[in-house]
Amino acid sequence: MRDYKILLNEVLERIKPSESERRILSNIIRKVMGRAERYLVKHNLDVDVKVEGSVAKDTWLSGDRDLDIFLRFPKSIGKNGLIKFGLEMAKFIAGENYVECYAEHPYIEAEIEGFKVDLVPCFKVDSPSEIASSVDRTPFHTEYVNLRLNGHLKNEVRLLKKFMKGIGVYGAEIKIRGFSGYLCELLTIFYKSFINVLKGSLKWHPFSTIIDIEGYYVGFEDEALKMFNSPLIVVDPVDRKRNVAAALSLNNMCKFMSAAHIFLKNPSLEFFFPKPVQPLSRSEILEQIHERGSEFMFILTGCPKIHPDILWGQLYKSLEGIENLLRSFDFNIINSTVWSNEKDLVIFILELERLNLPTVKRHIGPPVYNLDDSERFLRKYLYSSKVLSGPSVENDRWVVYVKRKHTSAIKLIRDDIFRARLGELVKSAFQERFEILVNEEIIDIYVKNPFFASFFTSHLHGRPGWLKL
Amino acid sequence: MRDYKILLNEVLERIKPSESERRILSNIIRKVMGRAERYLVKHNLDVDVKVEGSVAKDTWLSGDRDLDIFLRFPKSIGKNGLIKFGLEMAKFIAGENYVECYAEHPYIEAEIEGFKVDLVPCFKVDSPSEIASSVDRTPFHTEYVNLRLNGHLKNEVRLLKKFMKGIGVYGAEIKIRGFSGYLCELLTIFYKSFINVLKGSLKWHPFSTIIDIEGYYVGFEDEALKMFNSPLIVVDPVDRKRNVAAALSLNNMCKFMSAAHIFLKNPSLEFFFPKPVQPLSRSEILEQIHERGSEFMFILTGCPKIHPDILWGQLYKSLEGIENLLRSFDFNIINSTVWSNEKDLVIFILELERLNLPTVKRHIGPPVYNLDDSERFLRKYLYSSKVLSGPSVENDRWVVYVKRKHTSAIKLIRDDIFRARLGELVKSAFQERFEILVNEEIIDIYVKNPFFASFFTSHLHGRPGWLKL
User: Fold this and answer.
1) Which of A144, A390, B4, B347 is 20 to 30 A removed from B146 (C-alpha atoms)?
2) A 176-205 → B contacts, CB under 8 A
3) Which residue among B250, B351, B359 places its CB closest to the CB of A396?
């Protein structure tokens, strides 16, 4: 067996929060708590103000600048009361710089001394069975984790989180569809060390792995698989009906498994600290596009102003819709992705075998011995101006060679993009304006926009930096 | 129900042999028999000389110029004796103009007063169970048919044969893989009229229809289906182990069924007397090629000097081999065929979506959880110069984007045609020389060769003339 200790110690030295970082964070917490106290006194309210998230569990990483503060109101205040007083209190705490956000419930995202502080109103309930929304459940997660994570295991969580971040699968948000912090903590509790999580993952199998720490489904594994129907199932110890890994995509589950596999063979710092992507130069990128011999179609449009989770949900859905539209007209897609700066620009990237197809298309009809179908087919095609050859019989079927409706992918998108299944907001963005660029026509955008350039470079490169054997 | 009588009577008027035709044929038979008699007397041999084929059964069509004469030797003469004396006698009868042919056994194809006279030596046996080769069986077929075909049914056979010829499915030879004369006769005996054969065929289903006049397989239909495993099974009344339709292709079975279907809906003379194909003019054919937007590859080579059955067997096999080679490198074939004048020219015609493919090709590897396969895959591609992107993980699999070995179909054929499964004689022809023409480059050959022009015109047109609803 390999000894990973030296390497992991080196990683830990860099990711454990320092004393000075902890001090800065403590000061901010004290300040927030003070403001909360003042609000409560002033309004004579009975609200439990609690630090939650990775700070509460001491599993945060050096350099993190996130703080979650939960404002736990009594259930008696009611849903409207929670929204009214909760947001008011959160804004009071936030001070000058904040935005109002909507997840399941509204909350305030404040910026306080360089930290992103989420101020989340919720109900204080006695048990997870009484929750009204998922934020009410969070304190129970914290409690569960804190009872089981000793000092050593906290660092194992840190290694796992940093590994996940390094390979790009950390975060349950829609843009990523990766592993949440809580999921990392549960995996560490279950497998008892970072290395054991990696080793354990080599035995995972998509849609048939259940990690069930509390053993709720012992003897009922098949029912659990059917009920959750997810690539990975990690039963929530505080709510047996919930899969903590519900947001995890098959792709990210498998990316993690593959990275674990390679790390165990060939460990390196690069998994934790990947080198930033160096965008290819103007001439290099043009050469790569040319060398591939395929054809790139870039669809540019504006960016809907909306919470990133909704934005990315719509972007992925729209990408799939565009792909399906192209495929339904026989365009072969080699690869596709979507990029956005989440401000004013969205770029769908589609790499096609060819932007143009021949006019003629072979269309296979019914078997000759299905007489009614055959007659319908013949009546449709016998005198149609779309027909180039046939109808004729090939093997046991009627066949006709017709003119394609769309021989140009560009024209198809330009004329018929709204026939694709698009997210509503993306549809509106397209309705306002969109632009199609082909192959090297992207170069001005590429040169002007280093974030897009990095993204496109690593999309073209494909191979992760840690992938060495 | 429609009344086809007038139409069919009109057809019969044109296809029943006239009295003068019958007289000419009788004279030739008398002449041949006389020569045979002289040979037998001279050599003191006991040989039964018999007219066989459609003439013996009186099912020949006006205009046919074929005559089959069987020389039935006693079995005691032995195989070598049959070949020696059989061919000698056949050549004596043939006179000046003949060629020696090889099917199962050698025979002589003579030209006598404008007739093609096949002189076929065979053994005279007492029952079909004693036959040494299929030609020995023929007299039993003739006997069987003559016992069951009355004057009226003979004309029904003539209608069926002419219909089969008109729609291009008549003849059991390899080039056609259609219905033999004997098969037409049996179908007429079974269904009792031409129209009933057509109607009956609408109930056929490929690989599950058995026509078993003598009822050999009653109660054992499943065994018969398994044993014969052919699109259509017509049990030979004189040899229960033989499928008379063994040579019939699925395509021709279905072409017949489709033509029957259409004829019964919309009868016309065109099924029996199709208009000859008018080749498109030079400019028309160029326009059609252009309009389709696809790309034609014509592979030209010399023609092996060999019996047409062997030639066409090899041509079809080679066409399939060339198609498979192109497909294995991802070239999409819309349509293909092969033409030959059976003298000095063979042209393989392949219509491709594109002659050129992009360099980049997506190659899907093993699932990440198959650890050994994944390592093998990674070792193969991680440092390969063929890789353009990746390896990376997509869904649950390793994927790599590699450079295609062949981006040009022309170069593939030029460099690697001998990697295709070819008939031996076609391979030799290619080794001597072959030429690739693309799209309009075929035009000189097209203009110079009216037979090829007709063939290519009807290949492009596809639709049979009788196909009207």
Assistant:
1) B4
2) 202, 204-205
3) B250
Reported as a single tens digit per residue, the pLDDT across B236-276 is 999 999 999 999 999 999 999 999 999 999 999 999 999 99
Q: Tens digits of per-residue pLDDT, A27-73?
A: 999 999 999 999 999 888 889 999 999 999 999 999 999 999 999 99
pLDDT cut 90: percent of chain B above it: 88
pLDDT in tens, A312-367: 999 999 999 999 999 999 999 999 999 999 999 999 999 999 999 999 999 999 99
Contact B358 A334 (CB under 8 A): yes
Q: Where in chain A is the domain with CATH 3.30.460.10?
A: 13-134
Which residues contact residue A50 at a Cβ distance below 8 angstroms, ignoring those fewer than 6 apart?
A56, A69, A70, A72, A139
Looking at domain B282-356+407-461, what is its CATH homologous superfamily?
Poly(A) polymerase predicted RNA binding domain (3.30.70.590)
pLDDT at A145: 96
Kindly list the residues from chain A whose CB atom is less than 8 angstroms away from the CB atom of residue B457.
Answer: none
Q: Is A266 left (phi over 0), alpha (psi -120 to 50) or beta?
A: beta
pLDDT tens per residue, range A414-429 = 999 999 999 999 999 9
The pLDDT assigned to A1 comes to: 45
Which part of chain A has CATH 3.30.70.590?
282-356+407-461
- Name the least confident of A314-328, B95-109, B144-158, B394-408: B95-109
The confidence band for A2, taking pLDDT boundaries of 50, 70 and 90, is low
The nearest alpha carbon in chain A to B262 belongs to: A375
Test A462 with B390 for CB contact under 8 angstroms: yes
For residue A281, give the nearest of A438, A456, A447, A460 by alpha carbon. Answer: A447
Rounded average pLDDT over B455-462: 94
Q: With CB atoms and an 8 Å threshold, state whether A359 touches B390.
A: no
Residue A102 has pLDDT above 80, yes or no: no
CA pair distance A59, A149, nearest whole angstrom: 9
Interstrand relation of B115-124 and A106-112 (parallel, antiparallel or unpaired): unpaired
Distances (CA, A) of B347 to B296, B328, B435: 12, 22, 10
State chain A's mean pLDDT as an integer: 94
Token duo for residue B15: 């296809």
Work out the minimum CA distance from B469 to partner chain A, whole angstroms.
Answer: 7
How far A210 CA sits from the closest chain B CA (Å)?
16
Residues of chain B with CATH 3.30.460.10: 19-133
SS3 category, A122: strand
**Alpha carbon separation from A64 to A16, A58, A167, A275, B23 (Å, rounded):** 10, 12, 17, 19, 108
Q: How many other β-carbons are positioned within 10 Å of the β-carbon of residue A264?
A: 17
Could you tell me where in chain B the CATH 1.10.1410.30 domains are found? 149-271
In CATH, what class is B19-133? Answer: alpha beta
Q: Which of B394, B400, B469 sits opposite A251 (nearest CB)?
A: B394
What is the crossing angle of helices B308-328 and B409-416, to 10°? 120
How far is it, in rounded angstroms, from Cα A84 to Cα A396? 71
CA distances to A93, A332, A386 from A327, rounded to whole Å, are 52, 6, 21
Average pLDDT, chain B: 94
The residue ranges of DSSP E strands in A75-191, in sequence order, are 98-102, 106-112, 115-124
Point out the residue among B251, B354, B398 whose CB comes nearest to the CB of A354. B354
Question: Which A-chain residues 341-360 have CB contacts (< 8 A) with chain B?
Answer: 351, 353-354, 357-360
CATH number among 3.30.70.360, 3.30.365.10, 3.20.20.150, 3.30.460.10, domain A13-134: 3.30.460.10
Q: Give A351's contacts in chain B (Cβ within 8 Å).
A: 360
**CATH fold of the domain at B149-271:** Poly(a)-polymerase, middle domain (1.10.1410)
Place B2 in a pLDDT band, splitting at 50, 70 and 90. Answer: low
